[in-house]
Design a protein that fits this description.
14 strands; 6-stranded mixed β-sheet; single chain; Beta Polymerase, domain 2; alpha/beta
């Protein structure tokens, strides 16, 4: 039995850049003694704290109500996925940093729901282990999952994601475990104590799987054959943690993947650089930019590029699209026009270029999303 490390919040200042809105969030979590830890992709946590990538935070479900209150007090807004694309036990929050004008996205996990892309069809009951063994990172000023457990979860996630098409790619010479996942595993391999990894893995996935895991971490990246051997060796079987039957899982995964492809193609046709399907639970907004045509169009485009990675946005809908704009607002989408439209429903927010620059415009849009006048 491994004794959890002593957990003490240090008073030394953070040594990496961090958005002020996230500093405020984690400082309040500590003050409220809410149990949490950042539980995956610690390798690029610095980028997450600067708003470049998402934050995945595991929360003790007993602290869920207090966590939601803290988020509201620190200028975060709850969002949801369109058409039921969300996952059980996971909530989405987007926050705004006034000083930089950046948006940040927090995935709040109350259970470890993971697995295949587009489905996340497994729930692993390891939440208490993650929270009980979390470690304090003084550079980032927050709690993170211990490296040994993160390595177990990273390899388990990868094993659960293997699909039929991956065999074809592997046969063609393409490495399955690559990109960010391979980088994370190499990063963890340099930080994990082999004996602690073996003990932690044995308690969660059994001795045989732990031995396989130790070899994969020692010599990354693992192959598909190694991952499938690990998956078959896990005790108790990972199949016992499935959220859906095999047929239902395949149907849901295919439906979500086709929907994702459709949204990506539609957004590309509309000129959006990234696609998001998150919408505000309170309903959508129509935002119009007024002023000289060229600057107004430039600001409208800047607002689109700012919002579209984090929420569903429709650009520059003309008079013939007023009905579509009305429906989009009802579904929670953000509609942005570069000028007022004759005959169109009155926008929820008008940004006058003579009275606002880009940062001011972002603040006004965010205030309107938050329901502030």
């Amino acid at each position: 039995m491994i004794s959890p490390p002593r957990l003490e919040i240090q008073t030394s200042p953070r040594t990496v850049p961090c958005l002020a809105v996230l500093v405020d969030l984690f400082d309040r979590l500590h003050a409220e003694e809410i149990r949490y830890c950042h539980w995956k992709s610690t390798e690029h946590l610095g980028a997450s704290l600067e708003g470049t990538t998402d934050l995945d935070v595991l929360i003790d479900r007993n602290d869920a109500a207090r966590f939601a209150r803290v988020l509201a007090e620190t200028d975060f807004q709850a969002f949801r996925e369109l058409n039921g694309r969300g996952y059980p036990g996971v909530e989405d929050y987007v926050g705004f940093d006034p000083a930089s004008g950046r948006l940040t996205h927090v995935h709040a996990h109350y259970q470890l729901t993971l697995g295949e892309k587009f489905l996340k069809g497994y729930r692993l009951p390891w939440e208490e282990t993650a929270l009980a063994t979390r470690v304090w990172d003084p550079a980032y000023g927050l709690y993170v999952v211990e490296p040994a457990l993160e390595a177990v979860m990273l390899v388990t996630r990868a094993a659960l994601k293997v699909r039929g098409r991956d065999y074809i790619l592997a046969a063609a010479g393409k490495t399955y475990f690559r990109g960010g996942a391979a980088r994370e595993l190499r990063w963890l391999a340099r930080r994990v104590d082999p004996e602690r990894l073996r003990a932690r893995a044995a308690a969660l996935v059994g001795e045989r799987a732990a031995a396989l895991l130790g070899r994969m971490v020692a010599q990354p990246p693992p192959s598909i054959v190694q991952l499938l051997a690990f998956r078959r060796s896990v005790t108790p079987s990972l199949a016992g943690y499935r959220l859906y039957g095999a047929i239902t899982a395949r149907r849901r995964r295919w439906a979500r993947e086709l929907s994702w492809i459709w949204v990506a193609l539609r957004n590309r046709a509309r000129g959006l650089p990234k696609r998001s399907t998150r919408t505000a639970a309170q309903g959508g907004l129509a935002i119009a930019v007024t002023g000289p045509q060229a600057p107004a169009t430039a600001l409208a485009r800047a607002l689109l590029e700012w919002l579209s990675p984090q929420m569903a946005v429709l650009p520059n809908l003309g008079e013939r699209d007023s009905a579509e704009a009305h429906r989009a607002r009802g579904r929670g989408l953000i509609v942005i026009a570069d000028r007022l439209r004759t005959g169109a429903p009155r926008p929820d927010l008008i940004v006058d270029l003579s009275q606002a620059d880009a940062l001011d415009a972002k603040q006004r849009v965010w205030d309107r999303l938050r329901g502030r006048p």
